[in-house]
Amino acid sequence: MTPTSETHISTQVPQLEFFWKTAISEGLPVALWRLPKSTEKQLLIDLSGRTSQTKIDLEELPSGFAMSPFIGESLFLKGDLYYHFDQDNQLVENNIHPSSEQAQEFFRKVQLTYDEQHEDTPISSANFTVNYTKNFESPTESSLYNEITYAEMVSDAIDAIQRGDMQKVVLSRTKQITLPENFEVVEAFNKLCVAYPNAFVSLVYLPQEKALWLGATPETLISMDKEGIFRTMSLAGTQSAIGPNGEKYHPAEIRWASKEIEEQAFVSRYIIECFKKIRLREYYEVGPKTVQAGNLMHLRTDYSVNTHEVNFPQLGTVMIELLHPTSAVCGMPKEPALRYIAENELHSREYYSGFLGPVNIHDESHLFVNLRTMKIQGNQATLFAGGGITEDSNPVKEWYETEMKSQTLLRVIL
Ligand SMILES: C=C(O[C@@H]1C=C(C(=O)O)C=C[C@H]1O)C(=O)O
């Protein structure tokens, strides 16, 4: 299918960035993503101009994109317009309502954007950023955390664990940076797609919040494919994938200490507890094995269920409710860990460690934990990173772990 045959607008095929820029300049909510191990880039636009809050019910919702905070109601971007692009950013498919009037009108606007740029009257990127930069007040604090204050926070958490308040808590921090003048967000997205073929790479624009969220996460919360296979994973434990002299390690070379093995086992146990709550016994479990996520290595166990075999088509929806937030981003047991996070972190997590991803697109839903992520407002970016704290954590090492996690994005996009 080509856009030309569907829309009869032009023989030229505009590229991804023109669709993106047109939607942004119209002030519309947009989600752009690339699934792990795929080359397709998918773009979805909600023409209502607003995102609505809703429960992520895979049985009920139309095609769209879910964006859920760590705590609170999920947002849902309706897939009024949907396009997919190849790895060279060329339009391949325009297939939810390709012939609707709105789709045709939007395509004409994209064409205009494209033509203007190609008539030597380039529309500068500043024009496109105006919608999400205006009315934005720059954050005043330069940095909420440093090595010393974060290490103290971790020490306090270790004390709380030793007192028996909980077994594990995931603490996180922010890192504030000013983006370079020539920073282009779609280019950054494209770079992340190339650098991290196994990650879920996403870029979401929320006009109500005048914010963009850009990320490359290694962690699936739940996925339901068109064959009815449900998947989730237990991901935890972190080490650098790069040696002291810049050499790249192979996953098979990595050795894990008992601290990381235990930390990841908490997450696996948590997932199995969720299965038990719904009396689901027929699940497949593979792992734990070492997996690479860009500059890092993690321990991962994969779980899958054939929902046809167990006659449980709503498993995806039920598991979103049960799993989120998992022990990989919150802690064990969940309630005291949640309380500890609320009382001790100095920032609001917002969408970091929430979940996001496409819902009911081509009969599939893929939701990921929002990690290795940053919020962009104007020329300010806030990176979010955390790590699981157990009795055996080393406070200074935990700080470096959050630095390495921030580098997953920074080393590629800057
Ligand atoms: C919390 C994050 O990552 C999670 C925590 C990990 C850990 O504690 O080792 C590893 C992978 C993720 O499940 C993050 O990236 O911010």
TrEMBL record:
Q: What is its EC number?
A: 5.4.4.2
Q: Which species is the source of this protein?
A: Flectobacillus rivi
Q: Which Pfam families match?
A: Chorismate_bind (PF00425)
Kindly list the organism's lineage: Bacteria, Pseudomonadati, Bacteroidota, Cytophagia, Cytophagales
Q: Where does the record place the Chorismate-utilising enzyme C-terminal domain?
A: 149-405
Q: Which SUPFAM superfamilies match?
A: ADC synthase
Q: What is the name of the protein in this document?
A: isochorismate synthase
Q: What are the protein's UniProt keywords?
A: Isomerase
Q: Which InterPro entries match?
A: ADC_synthase, Chorismate_C, IsoChor_synthase
Q: Which residues form the signal peptide?
A: none
